[in-house]
Amino acid sequence: MKAIGSAHPLPISEPASLQDFELPTPDPDMRDLLVRVEAVSVNPVDTKIRRSQVAAEQVGVQRVLGWDVAGVVEAVGAQVSLFQVGDEVYYSGSLIRPGANSEYHLVDERVVAKKPVSFNMAQAAALPLTAITAYEALFDRMTIPFQRDSDGQAILIIGGAGGVGSLAIQLAKIANLHVIATASRPESQAWCKKMGADKVIDHTQSILEQLEQLHRPMVEYILNASQTDQHWEAMCKVIKPEGRICGIVDTSESVDLNALKSKSATFVWEFMFTRSMYQTDDMIEQHHLLTRIAEWVDHQKIQSTLTETLSPINAANLRTAHATLESGRMIGKLVLTGWPS
Ligand SMILES: NC(=O)c1ccc[n+]([C@@H]2O[C@H](COP(=O)([O-])OP(=O)(O)OC[C@H]3O[C@@H](n4cnc5c(N)ncnc54)[C@H](OP(=O)(O)O)[C@@H]3O)[C@@H](O)[C@H]2O)c1
User: Fold this and answer.
1) Could you tell me if the CB of 271 is within 6 A of ligand 1?
2) Residue 235: C-alpha distances to residues 143, 191, 224 (Å)
3) Measuring from atom 15 of ligand 1, which residue has the nearest CA?
4) Tens digits of per-residue pLDDT, 233-242?
């Protein structure tokens, strides 16, 4: 089968940073599905892993990246109970297994769901990784009930126009929160509005001063979909007493956790690969939450975040996609569809 791999931690301008190559098609075992991959999306995690140093014995070994998939179940392992051959599915998968930039891909059925009926393969591939992250951040980590009456509570979503922010805005609106998103350019600000943000402020300016101008100097919840340390001081100032902050990006500088103590405010991490990486007892929750996301899509409660499609799925287009992501200016999601004949 065709696959795209990364064998050396090279800058994306180097043709060898991502290369087309051939792999044997794997067989599904146990609870695995063999999925015929029709569309894949690209996330910052792909670019981070591609650039990361590998152990000496791994240099030159092709590593297949790609953790956002829409496709069709081609074969199933003996213990599979949730899916059958021919089902159209979408999922993110597991970081400790090969990614899905290949014609066929193995994935544990517990992190897979049937794709939204009303979305095509490209729209479906844009969803899973960012939807899981935003869903787990809001509803599992910050424990916001998703069926709640509107009571004026507010969430600040830092990095609102990116992949995660685009889904977080929509999920926060489903939970009836007042949503204040951040974006720094007219086009990213307009996108946050399109996703449903009530207000948009600029993360390159003072967040505190802009919230004061909106007569909301503090908010109950913050999801930071960007640099945790860069926005730490501002988050500590604008979180309400007993409020909750969720971070999804490693800190490069240490942060002062004591700044949250007098407010009894909570800081919690979200890492969407935790369940699959540690095979947690509740790993099947990703099947349930992706199923719920698909229902919300089919009931028009969630709109597509797809903004750019490249075809076919090959190393040249994947390099273009990585370069776009590395600019840090992505709006919505970029997807690659179809394999070269
Ligand atoms: N922990 C997890 O499970 C998890 C899951 C998914 C993603 N992540 C991480 O979360 C981050 C965001 O992922 P993503 O997919 O949303 O990325 P993305 O789509 O590439 O995000 C692009 C957006 O980031 C905004 N941005 C750039 N610099 C910013 C800053 N200094 N402050 C606030 N916003 C800024 C940009 O807005 P403007 O153009 O308007 O400035 C742009 O729209 C990445 O580092 C990713 O690796 C973690």
Assistant:
1) yes
2) 18, 23, 9
3) 163
4) 999 999 999 9
Residue 98's DSSP bridge partners are none
- Structural domain of 172: 131-269
Ligand 1 centroid–CA 249 distance in Å is 9
Measuring CA to CA, which residue among 321, 280, 274, 288 is closest to residue 126? 321
Nearest CA to ligand 1 atom 41: 184
Query: What pTM does this model have?
Result: 0.98
Residues 248 and 289 grouped into a single domain:
no
Quick one: 163 and 207 in the same domain?
yes
User: Are residue 117 and residue 138 in the same domain, yes or no?
Assistant: no
Which of 222, 237, 269 represents a domain boundary (last residue)?
A: 269
Same domain, 117 and 21: yes
- For the record, the structure tokens of 238 come out as 């604008």
Give per-residue pLDDT as tens, 80-114: 999 999 999 999 999 999 999 999 999 999 999 99
Ligand 1 atom with the smallest distance to the CA of 130 is 6
Q: At what angle do helices 163-174 and 128-135 cross, to 10 degrees?
A: 50
**Among 251, 269, 287, residue at a domain's last position:** 269
Here the CATH number for the domain that contains residue 168 is 3.40.50.720
The 10s digit of each residue's pLDDT in 130-189 is 999 999 999 999 999 988 888 899 999 999 999 999 999 999 999 999 999 999 999 999
